[in-house]
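Kindly inspect this one:
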Amino acid sequence: MTSTEKGEVNILMSGASGFLGTVLASVLRESGFVISEVVSKDASRINIICPFALSEGNYEFVIHAAGKAHSVPKTRIEKQEFYRVNVDGTKNLCHALERSSQLPKSFIFISTVSVYGVDEGELIQETHPLNGITPYAESKILAEEWLRQWVSDKQVTLGILRLPLIAGPNPPGNLGAMIRGIKSGRYLSIGQADARKSVVWAKDVAHIIPRLAQTGGTYNLTDGYHPTFGELEEAIATALNKKKPVKVPYWVANCLGKIGDGVGKRFPINSDKLKKITSTLTFDDTKARNELGWSPTTVLSAVGEWLR
């Protein structure tokens, strides 16, 4: 990689203030990289859904971590917001780079395993068809496709990371909901809680990015262990010094799910959530291990750190 006069490598990052972006920026800075957040020429933060111009700077590579996730759209406008942020926002960032004095050598796109469009399965590989149909999944698919054409035209190396549940400080989404529920004592463990889910330690994602910037490619990342819900529940409860969650038979949860289907989002569970909780869904990271030297942390071993 080309370095600055001080031997530092400049990285431009979108989404540096988000959950994952905060971890990526912190770890990369600790490793000696110079992280610049996507800002406008007057040094103000920008809204990527609108065209913008970047502040000047020569960047070795770009990490595009900004995106919309972790919500279920109910209206047409809410659905469209996924495409405005994840697709139009990606295009606007790239067009802003085109207007800069120099294009980066590499572009790293933070994507999701949701692009595969599966609710259950084991060790799903990168070659699996992209069948995602939710606004979140489809918008990420469209962004990936557009980026492949853009980097081909501009001769930029593209790296795509398809991530599952991400463990780190104050995680959003289902993992965050589990932590809050266990903290409050209102979390219920369903059935045998033996469904396995792929997770990844956020700091590990940061460590692999410089290597990915050199090689490019599309990769799943996981912790390689794929803990069960029961293992996650017990580890979180232990780290928080809380009692193990109360277990509820599956048939009871199924009845509650049907009630939730009728009540709506005010109810903590519905049939769709129940299916996701009780179905194994894991992804294969062999490609990253073989080509990038991916050697991840087992998330269960780091629970104490990410719950601090």
Summary: The first helix runs from residue 19 to 30. The domain at 10-171+199-224+282-297 is CATH 3.40.50.720 (Rossmann fold). The chain has ten helices and twelve strands.
